[in-house]
Amino acid sequence: MAKLLLCTALIVAGCVPTLQPPAEPLPTETLCGAADLQALVGQPAKVLQTMRFGQQVRIIRPGMAVTADFSETRLNIDINANEKISRVYCG
């Protein structure tokens, strides 16, 4: 009986997952520069008129049609209905 309990305990112990540190996120937000531009979120959209970008930029307003293709080096800037920048991301 003791051997059966020992075997059962060993089998159950083998099913418990080991804790591993989470994998580091991929640096996709640095490829288009979005990581450095997060301070734009919440700013009025008109601040974009004074800025120059060194890569392809897509400014997306509510209801605007956009392509579904993904480009990790393209900067996307979402503008909400209140003409504020709501999101800055690569894609």
Summarize the structure in words:
By secondary structure, this protein is of the alpha+beta class. The chain is 20% helix and 16% strand. It has helices at residues 2-15, 28-31; strands spanning 57-60, 75-79, 85-90. Strands 1-2-3 form a three-stranded mixed beta sheet. Strand 2 and strand 3 (85-90) form a beta hairpin. The longest helix has 14 residues, at 2-15. The N and C termini lie far apart (61 Å).
Structure in a nutshell:
The chain is α+β, with helices and mostly antiparallel strands and about 90 residues long. Helices cover about 20% and strands about 15% of the residues. It is built from two helices and three strands; from the N terminus they run ααβββ.
Share of helix among residues? 10-25%
Spatial ordering of strands, largest sheet = 1-2-3
Strand content: 15-25%
Largest sheet: 3 strands, mixed
Secondary structure: number of strands: 3
Can you write the helix and strand succession as a string? HHEEE
Low-confidence parts: none
Number of helices: 2
Molecular shape: globular
The value of Rg in angstroms is 24 Å
The helix/strand class is alpha+beta
Give the overall pLDDT as a whole number: 81
Distance between the termini: 61 Å
Give me the secondary-structure topology.
Elements: H1 2-15, H2 28-31, E1 57-60, E2 75-79, E3 85-90
Parallel strand pairs: 1-2
Antiparallel strand pairs: 2-3
List key phrases describing it:
about 90 residues; alpha+beta; three-stranded mixed sheet; 2 helices; 3 strands; globular
